[in-house]
Amino acid sequence: MSDAMDVKSHDFVLGNSGGIASIASHISYNEDDNDDEMPKVTKAVAAAGKVIEKTKGAIAKAATKRKAAPEPEIDAPAAAVKVTKKRKTKKEEDSTPLADRTAVSSLKPAMHIGAHVSAAGGVQNSVTNAIHIGANAFALFLKSQRKWTNPPLDPTAKTQFISQCKHHGYSAAEHALPHGSYLVNLAQADEEKANQAYTSFLDDLNRCEQLGIRLYNFHPGSTGGDSRAAAIGRIAAQLNKSHKATKTVVTVLENMAGSGNVIGSTWEDLRDIIALVEDKERVGVCIDTCHAFAAGHDLRTPEAFKKTVDSFNEIVGHKYLKAFHLNDSKAPFNSNRDLHANIGTGFLGLRAFHSIMNHAPFAGMPMVLETPIDRPGPDGKPTEDKKVWADEIKLLESLVGMDAESEEFKQLEEELQERGEAERNKIQDQVDRKAVKDAKKGTRGKKGAKKKKDESDESD
């Protein structure tokens, strides 16, 4: 039989008037025990009493040292309590969505619109940053695009990227569009530099496959002064090599603005590269609207839009079109200048994007904004304002199904054009002055050539 009573140890706190009650609460009685054990209870209580008596002196001494708290007056008004609202930290502000994501199924056609977001701190952060701006598609750099050598893909970042895409309903295979490094030139003729470019390129493709990403966008490259045909052949050879070294990723050529020796400003350049690629299922095209416009592919009117789309389909083929970079242009038509402007504020204008948003064959493709988001901060220095992208995504989505002849559209078009007028005028002036300068150079060149010819004729 167990003891009828158990006195448990108890720590006393000076000044605690519940000392006795505390002890009593720790005396337990077992209902199954008989009365023969009751003397033990008496002894235990007596022992507890002695402990209490010993503590009385200490309690009394402590009480004399404590200053008695004054009794509150009954009629005294309660002191007002100031409630301080806790400010959000920058991290909390950055994680709060600037806009909710639109259900793509509500858009007819279903357009997946987003932006090129930051992956600083790990590729998994690109998903968070896409959610932040209400994006249904996104682009990212898979590693630093300013360095040739980078650490391998972090396993934790990989796991988190995949799980976050799944959790938030992003299809990494269909609507994530990584951008290649600007350092890479697959048309490079120098063997050592070509190997360096290929190694970096292949590393990105392997990262795509680890992350479940199917589309990889990159700039074709530059001739470096070599013939166009030879440079295109080298690009295709590098693609064929990379396709054999990987399994699923589709290498997506981006059209270019047409400056210098850059390849890809004409549909024919893209066609010729694709023609030399052995696995046609592993190659595609991303149309950058600013680049296309700067290279002479007009999109400003419904008629111009149709003509440009038809020419692409005829020369390259619609089946190769995989994605879009949506950018207006600060520079005028056919200027060969790659200057991105915010949607509707540039020389392309809102009508071009209305045509894109309502062209059913483009549905389902990732459409990525690369528009400028730097705005003057409180100190006057430029700072990123991601709300620009959040607003532009909603603007583009609003164009789906909108009547381009409505007052709503015309007013919106006018407001955006007015907003970008100063910048357009500035760039137009630069282009005009350059044209005059080039014309003078051309005239001097012709005169010089004629003079040399005349001198040569005289010497004969």
UniProtKB/TrEMBL annotation:
Which ranges carry the Xylose isomerase-like TIM barrel domain? 130-398
Bias regions of kind Basic and acidic residues — which residues?
407-441
Q: Which HAMAP family match?
A: Nfo
Renumbered to this chain, the Basic residues biased-composition regions fall at 442-451
Task: Tell me the InterPro entries matching this sequence.
Answer: AP_endonuc_2 (IPR001719), AP_endonuc_F2_Zn_BS (IPR018246), Xyl_isomerase-like_sf (IPR036237), Xyl_isomerase-like_TIM-brl (IPR013022)
List this protein's GO terms for biological process. Answer: base-excision repair
Q: Which domain of life is it from?
A: Eukaryota
Instruction: State the Gene Ontology terms under molecular function.
Output: DNA binding; DNA-(apurinic or apyrimidinic site) endonuclease activity; phosphoric diester hydrolase activity; zinc ion binding
Family assignment from sequence similarity:
Belongs to the AP endonuclease 2 family.
Cofactor needs: Zn(2+)
Instruction: Give positions of region: Disordered.
Output: 406-460
List, alphabetically, the SUPFAM superfamilies matched: Xylose isomerase-like
Protein's name according to its UniProt entry: Apurinic-apyrimidinic endonuclease 1
Keywords, in A-Z order: DNA damage, DNA repair, Hydrolase, Metal-binding, Zinc
